[in-house]
Amino acid sequence: MANIVIVGTQWGDEGKGKIVDLLAEHVDLVVRFQGGNNAGHTMVVGGEQFICHLIPSGILQGKTCVIGNGVVVDPQVLLEEIDALGHRGIAVTPDKLKICEKAHLIMPYHKQIDLARERKKGEGKIGTTGRGIGPAYEDKATRRGIRFVDMLDQEIFREKVTTLLDEKNFYLKNYLAAETLDPEEIINQYQAYAQRLAPHVTNISIFINQAIQSGHQVMFEGAQGTHLDIDHGTYPYVTSSNTLAGNACCGAGVGPKAITEVMGIVKAYTTRVGLGPFPSELFDATGDRIQQKGAEFGSTTGRKRRCGWLDTVILRNAVRLNGLTCLAITKLDVLTGLESLNICTGYAYRGQILQDFPASLKVLAECQPVYETLPGWSEDIAPIKKAGDLPPNVKSYLNRIEELTATPIYIISVSPERDATIVVKNPFR
Ligand code: GDP
Ligand code: IMO
Ligand code: MG
Questions:
Q1: Per-residue pLDDT at 299
Q2: For ligand 1, mutation pick of 266, 289, 330 (most atoms within 8 Å of CB)
Q3: CB under 5 Å of ion ligand 3: residues
Q4: Which site among 72, 219, 226, 356 is 20 to 30 Å from 251 CA-CA?
Q5: Residue ranges making up the domain that contains 235
Q6: Whether residue 370 sits in one domain with residue 300
Q7: Are residues 62 and 125 both part of a single domain?
């Protein structure tokens, strides 16, 4: 029996959705444990593209999907997602989607505050997705959040919204110079959401643990990436949750012994959307070429993603922080046609070579990537089904990643399609 956590190793958008969808075949439950609809996870099956922001990427394989207590949920977005999938023939019924009663809600003022704060900060902004993620986690930490269980109780919900809006409106109007909100409007809107979502709401810790005890396999689907983690990422240019594998336990109500495997998803190069340090970023024609060939636009906001070479300093950081047992490499096909490839192996800083990712942004700003250059390949690798059939230069690139990270590659993805994937080792067998 295997229960696996899947996490991004870089700054998000590594292709987690594709790999979770692929591996969902082998599990009974797929669980989101942190983040919210700042995530955009893409799956492509038979030429049809699906992007999930909140519903776990097990839904296309017909698996039971769970939104854990650690997720912050915008009920409006969730309902839109349920409806959009329904229109495409995928019924998201209460037995297919469970939502934790303890999950916190994203409220209209969270979105308003997120956007207005970024506007006010101007140049110094974080580049958030504007979905209200930070303000929602902020209220959770200051014990003023509203949970699903609170929304289902009309009296409690009314009281909480009215009290909170007093303060939020003051802040919106007087500090952020933004529009204020009407409590009655929010109460009516959210009561309608509550009615529709109530059949999905349950204690997911009990649900998941019972499933595990009866021999079912579970996949925990991370959102964002290791270097967007609030503690271990490039703070303050991070998201507002712990994105690391360890948080699968807290965010889903399971003990650490339930987890048997931790897979890190690695894009074959590096991207980042939003602001913040990115030592191996490319500002030249190669960067543009990767951006275009990889169609590197954010799945949530449509922003252009910044592109750069693969950075094994951050990958080694991800291996240690998540306890990765294996890797999946994605978007390898995007590198086809480049004459040579650089891999960042360390950072040059004031005459020293740093092997570990520095915490100080000031130090990071002075770091210069140290590169190792490998030959590229020109063969079309998208149709290849077996690792043994990959061109020699592709094999060298992959072998070097395994050496530099001391972690085995289990999966190699060569196109967005579910089937265009080389499974070197199936973590469930
Ligand atoms: P996630 O947030 O980690 O799930 O990743 P996103 O879905 O935001 O971004 C990954 C993008 O790359 C999506 O458009 C995927 O369809 C696409 N993709 C995933 N794997 C591959 C691959 O191996 N090759 C190519 N060309 N595209 C891929
Ligand atoms: P997936 O799951 C890439 C980034 C934002 C911004 C920072 C903070 O699709 O990989 P937030 O809205 O979370 O407060 O924004 O985090 N960010 C992501 N970047 N992929 C994501 O999710 C992201 N979720 C948040 O761009 O820099
Ligand atoms: Mg994404």
A1: 81
A2: 330
A3: 13, 40, 299
A4: 356
A5: 3-100+200-261
A6: yes
A7: no
